[in-house]
Amino acid sequence: MPERRRSWWGWGWADEALTGDSAAKLATAVAAALGAEVEPRPAPDLGDLDLAPPRLTPPAGLADICSSDVYDRSGHTYGKSFRDVVRGFHADLPHPPDLVAFPRDEADVVDLLQWCTDTNAAVVPYGGGSSVVGGVDGGGDWATDFDGVVSVDLTRLDRVLDIDRASRAARIQAGALGPVLEEQLRPHDLTLRHYPQSFQFSTLGGWLATRSGGHYATNWTHIDDFVESMRVVTPSGISESRRLPGSGAGPSPDRMFLGSEGTLGIITEAWMRLQDRPTFRASAAVRFSSLAAGVAAARAVAQAGLFPTNCRLLDAGEARASAGVDDGSAVLVLGFESADHPLDAWIGRAVECCADHGGETPEGIKVSAKPDEQREGTADAWRSAFLRAPYGRDAMVALGCVAETFETAVTWSGFDALHQGVTGAVERALKEVCGGGRITCRFTHVHPDGPAPYFTVLAPSRHGSQLAQWAEVKTAAADAILANGGTITHHHAVGRDHRPWYDRQRPVPFALALSAAKHALDPAGMLNPGVLIG
Amino acid sequence: MPERRRSWWGWGWADEALTGDSAAKLATAVAAALGAEVEPRPAPDLGDLDLAPPRLTPPAGLADICSSDVYDRSGHTYGKSFRDVVRGFHADLPHPPDLVAFPRDEADVVDLLQWCTDTNAAVVPYGGGSSVVGGVDGGGDWATDFDGVVSVDLTRLDRVLDIDRASRAARIQAGALGPVLEEQLRPHDLTLRHYPQSFQFSTLGGWLATRSGGHYATNWTHIDDFVESMRVVTPSGISESRRLPGSGAGPSPDRMFLGSEGTLGIITEAWMRLQDRPTFRASAAVRFSSLAAGVAAARAVAQAGLFPTNCRLLDAGEARASAGVDDGSAVLVLGFESADHPLDAWIGRAVECCADHGGETPEGIKVSAKPDEQREGTADAWRSAFLRAPYGRDAMVALGCVAETFETAVTWSGFDALHQGVTGAVERALKEVCGGGRITCRFTHVHPDGPAPYFTVLAPSRHGSQLAQWAEVKTAAADAILANGGTITHHHAVGRDHRPWYDRQRPVPFALALSAAKHALDPAGMLNPGVLIG
């Protein structure tokens, strides 16, 4: 039986790409929604690629873990942003990595870094390759500064090494993909409960390196909050923090590596805080006549100390697409879960908070579920809109559309201006460069002091123009985010794509300090050049 | 009316020191408890001090904010550890700061740093001066590397500058002492709810610089969790982070300055997340026949997702002293608070968790309250055991005893070994160097993956021997903490006193990175030399 293969140019499993009837239906629906023509083109073929020959030959000791195979090199050339998928779709891969390394253990990682140091090769930690911000590119103009680029794929380091049941923690290798680590935790009745949209195709190490946002809409929103300790291989030695439930001993070592995006070292394992598997659940979908009322309710819930697992506000456009509510209402999806206690008091009070702001809880609103290991066994859930969305995005690339998302966070007091500013700027840009299109908004996470708005853009375009058009729209969006007090990213990371705005957002003295830290750990500047710093 | 004065050698207000009958009663009680004689001596007199003359003369532009007054210099020579108080009590101040500066605004801070750079003077950010780890010493052997030392007291920068009611946040100057900032928040029905034991005599900037542990026993245990953004004056420029409810844009800039203990810059203001003032409360005191049963219950509560504000487990010794329970039981003090909803379901389930582990909730256990602005108006509460404890410690110094606390955090699975290891090591050391004494333990905070045990030591000693004896006991304690997987500090910070253990605990590559960051921001190494790094 042939091994199931990842798509080298698009999202996820190659055999799950939309084809045939599904693709045709989508084409009809998109054309209708955009009021524009679409032009389906076939997916690219691996055999059509003519990659530049690799500049590196691995030494004997590393030959077993290094590949210069076209499939591996093309699949590790980009992440999975719209920009990446468009380039892959058009076989536009001028800078593939010279080699892809698949270390079997930490010693391989150490040896690899040493060899790359010796040969002036750059090292790009690939994670699961799901970056949507240009965080794992295997090459680029910067690559000419090096005598080669090695993309490091850690997915062979995928074991749960230790379980501490009393402390509810596990030592997990950083290359474990979401389903792989959850599968190993299940027999212990434990779960990490980290479900980004990329869950199936992203790794623990990638989540840590990019401060991934996960399952919990409130309180513990980022993977950061679940870290007890980390082990990181740097060119200047291995950093291993002490496993602690909390500490006040100087600035947190882990917090320096969290969000370092592969620029300071390669994370090889971490002790992670786990959860008991939920046995109690409660949820509600609340309808509001206006987005403003929904925002006020979401704020009330976020500030009430109830800590819902899900608190997802959908604007009218998203409510129509995801919840079948087509009367212009906004919808707030609330969910609580617990392994310890019934949740009546929690959901009851949350719904009261919503009612205070005019929220109604009619029967019959169906919202797509977020992924959850409870439903893991059912094929339906795995094909839920949430996890399937990136496949749909690939299909829209094949139709010649612009289809992308971006996200931010802002204070409650700043949200209205940011929402208007971003929506207005993007709509103007879409009209100007695409002749139309639409932008919708939802909250993925809510903090006591502000929400994390997540925007989805769909617009007509043409094959050949998609990248240039999206670049203008993205610039308009990011400029508006920064002008209105937001962050360039709440949980998608910085990579290379967000650098212009990150550099404006970041305090200058902090940039000095981070650069100095980088130089101390990576004197040759070989780790993920151009990401974050350098 | 003369200004109320802080004690220059001991805790808090000079006029609240234990004297007369209170001191005599304490002497009798301590002698009985220790089965040893005590030798009361009178408090020292400022007039007896003969400080070395200041090495620095401020320039005209800074003369107004600089003091070389004996009271100011002696009061800014040490923090408030046992070691500090003993040295103050014995007028042992060989290294006072040359000047104490009281900036009126941030521009003064900038000018001061520039002048200190120009004159090769070291700068010690003093906060409220409540460090118990040697974090604010105005001098020491290291001071000879400089042509002077300036202690910077920011308590004139004590204003709440902005309130964002919708986002529940405020911009607060870093020199505001606890009561000063709470007083300004109260008219807005808001509260920071950060109540370390030092609340009255520590500042927001000090809390941030030391990763202070506060009011909440669970979830948001450290001040870190309440920071939206910070403004820090460094010798290489002013760092101001963007005000955000959450972000994934690179390593967190704030997390680099949180815990930096004045070594990277002087924090001048921060946007802090606030709370609505609680209107619902529920509490219970639960008795357990063994510490082990209490630990199991505390773990169950910590892992249940109930998030009590208070979850303080007292061992038999602490239960006797603080809760009047003298049958050898351990006591778990549970408290919930909310501004939003009744807490019956929360406390009900927490008590059930305790009952599962044999906990009983008899009527009549009285536990001393933690400080709380609700009770701020009543003199009784302000004189509660919690806030009064440091005054009692001063009185024990005057009796020639050893009296000190230390704290850590460890996983649940590691707690038994740590508790036995630390208790055993300290008891052996006490017997050997003090001929007796006692150690007790409580949990100040509990995390899902482990508690923060807090130890209190009281032992007989003699004037003149206290420091040497305590040094041996502290070394035994800290060695045992590290050997058993704990952290050298959960929320007391590192300072100079914890350096030997911090240096062993901290990952070497992180130390390289932190030193490099320090050098980038403070090239002259003038900021709090010897603390954390350098």
Please give the oligomerization state of what you see.
homodimer
Radius of gyration of chain A: 23 Å
**What is the mean predicted local confidence, pLDDT of chain A?**
94
CATH architecture of the domain at 168-275 in chain A: 2-Layer Sandwich
Annotation, overall tally of beta strands of chain A: 17
List unreliable stretches of 5+ residues of chain A.
373-383
Distance between the termini of chain A: 45 Å
* Most extensive contact: A-B, 101 and 101 residues
Range of helix content of chain A: 25-40%
Beta-strand percentage range of chain A: 15-25%
Biggest sheet strand line-up of chain A: 5-6-10-8-9
- Structural category of chain A is alpha+beta
CATH level 1 name of the domain at 168-275 in chain A: Alpha Beta
CATH topology of the domain at 168-275 in chain A: Uridine Diphospho-n-acetylenolpyruvylglucosamine Reductase, domain 3
Quickly count the helices of chain A: 17
Describe the global form of chain A. globular
Write the layout of secondary structure elements.
2 copies of one chain form a homodimer.
Chain A: H1 20-34, H2 60-63, E1 66-67, H3 70-75, H4 82-89, E2 99-101, H5 106-118, E3 121-125, E4 148-152, E5 160-164, E6 169-173, H6 178-185, E7 190-191, H7 204-210, E8 227-234, E9 237-240, H8 253-257, E10 266-273, E11 275-276, E12 280-288, H9 291-302, E13 310-314, H10 316-323, E14 330-338, H11 344-355, H12 379-382, H13 385-398, E15 402-407, H14 412-434, E16 438-447, E17 450-459, H15 466-483, H16 499-505, H17 508-521
Parallel strand pairs in A: 2-4, 3-4
Antiparallel strand pairs in A: 1-2, 5-6, 6-10, 7-11, 8-9, 8-10, 12-14, 13-14, 15-17, 16-17
